[in-house]
Write a structure and sequence with these properties.
The complex is a heterodimer.
Chain A lengths: L1 E3 L10 H19 L1 H7 L6 H23 L3 H23 L6 H25 L3 E12 L3 H9 L4 H4 L3 E6 L4 E8 L3 E13 L3 E6 L7 E9 L6 E12 L1 H10 L4 H18 L28 H8 L1
Antiparallel strand pairs in A: 1-2, 2-8, 3-4, 4-5, 5-6, 6-7, 7-8
Helix pairs in contact in A: 1-2, 1-3, 2-3, 3-4, 4-5
Chain B lengths: L1 E5 L5 E5 L11 E9 L2 H7 L15 E9 L13 E4 L2 E2 L5 H4 L13 H8 L5 E2 L16 E4 L7 E2 L6 H4 L5 H10 L8 E5 L3 H12 L4 E6 L2 H9 L3 E4 L5 H8 L7 E4 L10 H12 L8 H9 L5 E4 L12 H6 L3 E4 L4 H13 L11 E4 L3 H9 L8 E4 L1
Parallel strand pairs in B: 10-11, 10-13, 11-12, 13-14, 14-15, 16-17
Antiparallel strand pairs in B: 1-2, 3-4, 3-8, 3-17, 4-5, 5-9, 6-7
Helix pairs in contact in B: 5-6, 5-12, 8-10
The chains are: A alpha+beta, B alpha/beta.
């Protein structure tokens, strides 16, 4: 389960957002009600094409106004930026083909629109949440005693064996460790972490130190499963995802599904706990990289070169 | 080495591929001495199983001689030179499912479990040569094969039984047996088996061993029905008669006490319009199986009876007779075979000559002629019941 806590409610009381919403309304009403008069005010020749364009722009403004005042969301601000660019294009075309009468008013309107564009860009950039706090939870049941299951995790150094993104965890002190992970687009992220709680057989919790690129924290709880069926392992991970929903969409496009990843990580933890190691097939010889390998290696034995790569 | 590979729908090719290497520490490499084509391989051939890739080595029924064991095989259970039969589902032996002897539902052996979970709600075990949905493991229709977690997944054969006598312990004999065992057969039971292919034949043999009074075989291939009749089973040709009426007639109007579906998702039906209806729905993927056998089994079975399903289904069915199932207190049981659970007891039945698995073999071909074997088996040419390949 992924929880996105970016709340657009704060935008409802934002004076800049409300101001831009009102401006949209004030502009949209005359554009839709008296398009001919509006066109003349801009110093343009009045004709059916100009009127139609004006009504269209007016409808767009009223929609943006309704959105910004009724259900504020950064997307409305970005839609205003898009609309501004359309308006500037229309005005620039009008200026180029201008017959001279009232050109000063057209030029003034263009300058005004440019100023509004700047305000819209400012509002959109500053009001968009570029980091989304994410909380992921996942659980598995391991047919081992809670103490054994805890032991396997608490060493930390075996985590990279089953966590797809982790390259290395190095213990640096009694409660501190240094983590290295791979990030999208071939980058590497490193951070220091501190163990905040450690209750043998029950709980491990940790938090990244100040200054981590991706601030994160998490905990693993070990409960005896009912009926003596081993241990229920429950993991919670919290981190702030750079670039918000956009970043998440891009990452998903490149095959990063955080929740699924965590499920897979836990599945491999279970494999290590129960079967002793991560199971590899010819189709998914990379073990923990299985999901990223689709389309996979054919289910046929590997060549010497492929084997070397897998074993490296 | 030579291996029989999937080369797209309706196409298999024997290709040169690398020899298998150890990937996990408890692996073993086996020199394959005998392997077979399974009815479920035809679902792969026909393109009904998703996530097949060009070059996938096929085959999940194989046996051979151990030539190498991994460094983790320290208990001495398996050594080079040992003769082994390999069960088709890969089990870890340690998870809750394996401990409950539900080996084909092993929770640890499918590296693509996340994908399988999307299809089935929960993941299932890895299977050799059976798509990437079941893990992407190379199969055994090859000169050599890798056996995963070999201390759990190989049955050592220490007697002098021939390959042909024990090869089918890998899949079809235990599968047929489980089909009958799930029927909880009581004295005097009439057991009807849909499908007189190899699994159906073994379900019939097993039903008899387990005490069925009468066994009825349902199919349309004359040679398959003759094979069943030769063993003393009653036969119904569904091209000639309406199956339910025939079953009622044979059972004094009660219907069979127990029914086994040994057909699965590519069934055919005696009535053309019914056959075409499901064929069309399957072609546009609005259902993934043609469940004629299952529907008939459910509507024919006596009230309170058991319908046991060992024919393979992969996705969603249409026109499932839930009303008959519910209102007549039927029990529906199913499962990919938990082969490991049955291998030893079936080996004993073979040794005691109470079951003769070789009776279904009609074709013996070299591995190099695997594509012809698939063709014969698929088109039911030349009386083909079971093809054994020798590398």
């Amino acid at each position: 389960m992924t929880t996105d806590t970016s709340a657009p409610t704060a935008l409802r009381h934002d004076p800049l957002v409300r101001g831009l919403g009102l401006a949209s309304a004030l502009l949209g009403v005359p554009q839709v009600a008296t398009p001919g008069g509006f066109v003349r005010q801009l110093g343009l020749a009045d004709g059916p094409r100009q009127r139609m364009a004006t009504v269209a722009v007016g409808v767009r403004e009223l929609t943006a106004a309704a959105g910004l005042l009724g259900r504020p969301h950064p997307a409305w601000l970005w839609s205003r930026v898009g609309g501004d660019l359309v308006d500037l294009t229309l005005l620039a075309t009008a200026l180029r083909r201008h017959d001279g009468r009232g050109v000063a008013r057209t030029a003034a309107a263009t300058a005004g629109t440019a100023a509004v564009t700047a305000a819209d860009v400012y509002a959109a950039v500053t009001r968009t949440r570029w980091r989304t706090p994410v909380e992921l939870t996942a659980a598995t049941t391991v047919a081992k005693h809670p103490d054994e299951t805890y032991e396997l995790w608490s060493g930390l150094e075996r985590l990279p064996e089953f966590m797809a993104h982790l390259a290395e965890v190095r213990i640096t002190g009694p409660r501190t460790s240094h983590w290295t992970a791979s990030a999208p687009f071939g980058r590497t992220v490193e951070w220091d972490a501190e163990t905040t709680q450690d209750v043998p057989g029950q709980l491990i919790a940790w938090r990244s130190a100040q200054g981590a690129v991706v601030g994160n924290s998490g905990e693993v709880r070990f409960h005896p499963a009912p009926g003596g069926h081993g241990t229920e392992v429950q993991v919670t991970l919290r981190y702030s995802l750079p670039a918000g929903p956009l970043g998440r969409a891009v990452a998903r496009y490149f095959g990063e599904e955080p929740h699924q990843q965590l499920d897979d990580d836990l599945r491999r933890f279970k494999q290590i706990a129960e079967a002793g190691e991560v199971i590899r097939s010819e189709g998914a010889p990379g073990g923990k990289r299985a999901r990223a390998e689709f389309p996979q290696h054919p289910a046929q034995p590997l060549t010497e070169d492929e084997l070397r790569e897998v074993r490296s | 080495m030579k291996a029989n590979c999937w080369a797209g729908p309706d196409s298999v090719e024997v290709r040169d591929v690398p020899e298998p290497a150890l990937l996990n520490s408890r692996d073993a490499i086996v020199r394959v001495t005998s392997t077979a084509i399974c009815g479920s391989d035809l679902h792969l051939l026909d393109g009904y199983v998703p996530t097949m890739q060009d070059g996938d080595v096929l085959g999940h029924e194989f046996m051979g001689e151990v030539v190498e064991t991994g460094p983790g095989m320290t208990d001495g259970k398996l050594r080079p030179g040992d003769r082994v039969v390999v069960p088709f589902p890969i089990a870890c032996g340690a998870c809750a499912s394996c401990r409950a002897e539900l080996y084909s539902c092993c929770e640890n052996t499918n590296p693509n479990a996340g994908l399988a979970e999307k299809f089935f709600g929960h993941p299932t075990a890895g299977i050799y040569g059976y798509s990437h949905l079941t893990g992407g493991f190379a199969g055994g229709q090859a000169q050599y094969a890798r056996v995963v977690l070999a201390d759990v997944n190989a049955l050592k054969i220490e007697s002098d039984l021939t390959d042909e006598q024990v090869l089918f312990l890998s899949d079809i004999l235990p599968t047929g047996y489980m089909g009958a065992e799930m029927c909880d057969i009581q004295e005097g039971d009439v057991v009807a088996v849909w499908g007189a292919g190899p699994v159906g034949q073994f379900a019939m043999d097993s039903a008899r061993v387990l005490g069925a009074e009468r066994v009825i075989a349902i199919d349309k291939e004359t040679y398959r029905l003759e094979m069943a009749a030769a063993e003393g089973y009653t036969t119904i040709d569904f091209e000639d008669v309406d199956v339910r009426s025939a079953l009622l007639e044979l059972t004094g109007g009660r219907g069979p006490d127990k029914c086994v579906d040994a057909v699965g998702l590519e069934a055919t039906h005696g009535a053309t319009h019914v056959r075409l209806y499901d064929r069309a729905k399957q072609a546009v993927r609005s259902e993934t199986g043609r469940p004629h056998a299952l529907r008939q089994a459910i509507t024919s079975c006596r009230s309170g009876g058991i319908v046991s399903v060992v024919g393979v289904y992969g996705g969603l069915l249409d026109k499932f007779p839930a009303g008959a199932w519910m209102n007549r207190s039927l029990t529906l049981r199913a499962g990919q075979c938990h082969v490991h659970r049955y291998m030893k007891q079936l080996l004993r039945l073979i040794e005691q000559r109470r079951i003769d698995p070789t009776r279904v073999i009609t074709h013996r071909l070299p591995l190099s002629e695997a594509p012809r074997g698939y063709e014969l088996f698929k088109n039911k040419e030349d009386g083909c019941e079971k093809v054994v390949l020798t590398p």
